[in-house]
# Entry
Amino acid sequence: DADVTQTPRNRITKTGKRIMLECSQTKGHDRMYWYRQDPGLGLRLIYYSFDVKDINKGEISDGYSVSRQAQAKFSLSLESAIPNQTALYFCATSALRGQGSTDTQYFGPGTRLTVL
Amino acid sequence: SQQGEEDPQALSIQEGENATMNCSYKTSINNLQWYRQNSGRGLVHLILIRSNEREKHSGRLRVTLDTSKKSSSLLITASRAADTASYFCATVTQGAQKLVFGQGTRLTINP
# Structure
């Protein structure tokens, strides 16, 4: 079974709709991240969370919000989707420093989102 | 802004040849990591090298780090068709607690 899962895997929606992408992990990691990837580009950080009560904006947080419902769950919302949010979205986890962490991140399979 | 820049953007070689990819970065780092991404899939961690290390090996992978030049290279020896993927470097800068990814090198291994 996959350690980091994302739902849905694919989603097509219309401009203005609210969308939620969900991420769950069984790795027991404290840290979770949301990235987006555009064609031919690397990953850009949207939000990250170092524990349930800690939420931080990343490089491109405008237009997005997140919720850390539990240690194992981290969801990303697009309140009013727009076409330039069409991208591949990845969730990732890592262990907390001081617990043998090496900052290595473990990625989910991705969600392909298309906003029409 | 992206910390790492990779070179080349695309590389196509014959199976069995060695593949070398380079990554340059701008600010002092704590460590540098390489990840592989098969088409449309999640990234997989390959290897991590710390700022006080100069070279590291893992199987057919060899990573070097030159902090004076702020650069790293990833060498894949005896390439296989299954090595076809995009390869990304990512850095953890000193004082930061998150990864910053480069734009990647797309590697194609021709049979």
